[in-house]
Amino acid sequence: MGSPRAVATGCAAPHCARLCTEAGLAAVLAADRGLLHWRAMSRLGDPGLAEHAVQETLLRAWRACASYDPNRGSVRTWLLTIERNVLTDIARFRASRPGDSSWDEIGEQAENHCARPDFVEDLTDGLLVAELLAQLPAAQRDAVVQVILRDRAYQDVAAELGIPVGTVKTRVHYALRSLRRLPVCA
Questions:
Q1: Residue-wise pLDDT tens digits, 123-140
Q2: By CB count within 10 A, which of 17, 66, 131, 186 is most buried?
Q3: Same domain, 111 and 27
């Protein structure tokens, strides 16, 4: 049976993302917070708003913890999908209300919308990502592009490349670890 915290949040599902437990949340924060913040910062260009986007992503994931389906991808892939929706909500809200908007207004507006993903990235973001990816070995770069940027399941990428799923996961892991260590020039 799940921890008292897991039961209290209603997340006792056998395949939940485990964000409802302190250990599960700590593991996700340690593994994925940097990536979530990097993506939010590169898209929003504002450290405070990027932090808000990460927090909103984690809050939505925590609320939907029991709906996580491991057959559709890893927890990281699931979080990145949630974050993409959060970033889209924020971008749409900012576009509809030019000028300064408080984080509270953006958060309230984001909760009221069920946005579809926006797959068009800003040209500047694309150039930054391309510059960072160019510093990775080709195999790692291809894995990151497929799994993270194109939001494809590890299993699909492995099948397409004709390699084990574990190899794709290892390439993505080491690529992300390398990217976290690179300086980001604004």
A1: 445 556 677 778 889 998
A2: 17
A3: yes
* pTM greater than 0.70: no
- Count how many Cα atoms sit within 13 Å of the Cα of residue 123 in the half-sphere of its side chain: 0
Structural domain including 63 reads 1-119
**Identity of residue 95:** A
**What's the pLDDT tens digit per position in 159-174?**
999 999 999 999 988 8
Higher pLDDT residue, 5 or 96?
96
Tokens of 69: 């389906």
Q: What are phi and psi of 185, to 5 degrees?
A: -90, 125
Query: How many Å apart are CA 57 and CA 12, to the nearest integer?
Result: 21
108 lies in the same domain as 125: no
Nearest to 92 by CA among 68, 72, 69, 120: 120
